[in-house]
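in:
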């Protein structure tokens, strides 16, 4: 098995990364950052997002395990000080592999230039900061609503605890095969009427956003943001590719949610 290490550059991370590298070598595990089977991230959830995009081209062939150098995250099962236990497990056991949905986006431009496609692990949003943005929303090809406001956010189940949650979306269990669309500050009046609630689509549904023609909106894809040329449509569907996580111990999603957002219980690290 070939292992890649992907890390951020803060001081604590660099110390853990050094220890991790030494331990992997001691266990005769091969480090190969170009063609890995397993990607170990060291940092935060944001670091795992970075690793996902770095290895996006081969995401179906690899699995991820995350070490968090701060608090426990949603994509990170291990704490910095547990790196020796993790390496022992990697050397001696077969992990449980879990696969979660990704978001596929296809951008069609107003000038007819070639479409752009992307994958997102958390979410993609279409936003405008200067004025309000008008977007016609279609679900599975049928007109659904005319939105006016700051923007719309389409997220994966694992992304539901990120930006989606901040804009009032529901937290979804990542085993669900779905996407969620949440509104960002919609205006509701006699002309523009939206559902004013997040929606969760069926596995074979898709969402098309057709904004008014303008050149000052922003398309976000996870940690990236683009100021794009006028677009005709963004199409969102569940990607064929999935992200795989290697679990070397129990992961209880609702405990993780409680630990991250409520924090009223005592936790050990096994959540
Ligand atoms: P960032 O601005 O450094 O991170 C924003 C925060 O979101 C960090 O605390 C990050 O955790 C956390 N996070 C990332 N993915 C998460 C997930 N799936 N569930 C719960 N929390 C999550 O940027 P970043 O670290 O590169 O992350 C990019 C993400 O930030 C975007 O995909 C978006 O979801 C989120 N974001 C949120 C808001 C908002 O809530 N208003 C605004 C912009 C972006 P770590 O500290 O462990 O990295
Ligand atoms: Mn971050």
């Amino acid at each position: 098995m070939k292992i890649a290490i992907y890390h951020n550059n803060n001081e604590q991370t660099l110390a853990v990364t050094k220890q991790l590298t030494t331990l992997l070598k001691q266990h005769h595990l091969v480090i190969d950052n170009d063609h890995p089977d397993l990607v170990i991230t060291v940092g935060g959830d944001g670091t795992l997002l970075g690793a996902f995009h770095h290895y996006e081209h081969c995401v179906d062939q690899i699995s991820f395990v995350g070490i968090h150098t701060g608090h426990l995250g949603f994509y990170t099962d291990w704490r910095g000080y547990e790196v020796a236990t993790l390496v022992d497990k990697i050397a001696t056991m077969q992990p449980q592999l879990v696969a979660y949905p990704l978001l596929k986006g296809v951008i069609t431009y107003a000038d007819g230039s070639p479409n752009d496609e992307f994958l997102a692990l958390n979410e993609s949003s279409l936003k405008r900061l200067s004025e309000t943005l008008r977007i016609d929303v279609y679900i599975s090809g049928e007109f659904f609503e005319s939105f006016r406001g700051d923007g719309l956010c389409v997220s994966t189940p694992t992304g539901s605890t990120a930006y989606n949650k901040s804009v009032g979306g529901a937290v979804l269990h990542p085993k669900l095969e779905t996407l969620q669309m949440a509104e960002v500050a919609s205006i509701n009046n006699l002309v523009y009427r939206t559902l004013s609630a997040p929606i969760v689509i069926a596995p074979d549904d898709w969402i098309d956003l057709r904004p008014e023609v303008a050149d000052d909106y922003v398309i976000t894809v996870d940690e990236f943001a683009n100021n794009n040329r006028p677009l005709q449509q963004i199409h969102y569907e569940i990607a064929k590719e999935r992200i795989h996580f290697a679990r070397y111990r129990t992961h209880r999603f609702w405990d993780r949610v409680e630990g991250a957002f409520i924090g009223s219980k005592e936790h050990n690290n096994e959540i």
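note: The pocket of NAP (ligand 1) is lined by residues 44-46, 49, 73-74, 122-123, 158-159, 161-163, 166, 222-223 (CB under 6 Å).
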